[in-house]
Structures are given as C-alpha cells and as structure tokens.
Sequence to fold (92 residues):
Amino acid sequence: MQLTREYVAYMSKELMKRLTGEGLVQFDQPEYVNEVMLQVVLDELTVEDRINDEARRILEEHADQMKVFGATYEDAFKAIKKQIIRERRIVI
Fold:
C-alpha cells in the first residue's frame, strides 16, 4: 500500500463527513462506523500487497521448477500475479 494509514484514516473521516453532511446516511454510532469504514478501505488498499505476498510464497515453493524451466523470477512473478488476479476476478 502506497498510502499511509494516517492518510487512509483521514480519507475515511472525510468520506463520512460528506455522506452525513449531505444527509445521505445517518449513524447512531459514528465512531464505530468510522472504524469499520477505515478497516474496509485498508483491506481494499492492501489487496495488491496480499497478492504480491502470495505470489512470492508460490515462487518460493516452486523455485526448483523455475530453475529447470529457466524462468526468471520477474517473469514468473508477473505470470503468477496475473493468474491470481484472474482467478479471483480482482480489479487492481
């Protein structure tokens, strides 16, 4: 994730302000909703990080096969990452 947690928290608060300011939504517990919203935004922003971690783990497990086939780490990483994204139908 390229954004800091503090900036994401700021964005979440601003989003809540706009939603409530325009009367689009009302909350009984705004602090709780803000925490949940922050967690959802953080989860979404870290999807690519988790995919990268999973691709690295898969590459470590199949390092011997990469040597046999002469695949470079970068090419294999890109291919595995694309496959994960395609299988899970994720938009990055």
Remarks:
- The chain has a mean pLDDT of 91.
- The helical segments are 5-21, 30-45, 47-61, 63-69, 73-88.
- The two ends are 12 Å apart (CA to CA).
- Residues 57 and 87 are 17 Å apart (CA to CA).
